[in-house]
Amino acid sequence: MAYVDGFIVAVPKANVEAYKDLARKAGAVWKEHGALEYVECLGDDVPYGEVTSFPRAVQAKEDETVVFSWVVYPSRQDRDAVIAKVMADPRLQGDEWKSIFDGKRLIYGGFESFLEM
Fold this sequence. Notes:
InterPro entries: Dimeric_a/b-barrel, DUF1428. This protein is 29% helix and 27% strand.
């Protein structure tokens, strides 16, 4: 079964195009280093819930949209190897992302698949 990294982040609407450019670059790097899939999605039907919701989770403001993304790997071991390569890749070094979104409100985690249909 596959291993998946999931991400949720709030991106200012004014920065969506810059985020898309960064995502294309990052996706190419992830895939080059062994990720099976790299998917980025802009919030389209993401209501602000009374108790919990995607916008609440990342403290999204009125002028922000929620981005939901995931990366698929063959296994946790492969994921760990890919992440090490991605983090060392000079194309993703630097603070470019800091001008696009607030990394303190990025939520991420690794997940072991148990069902694929």
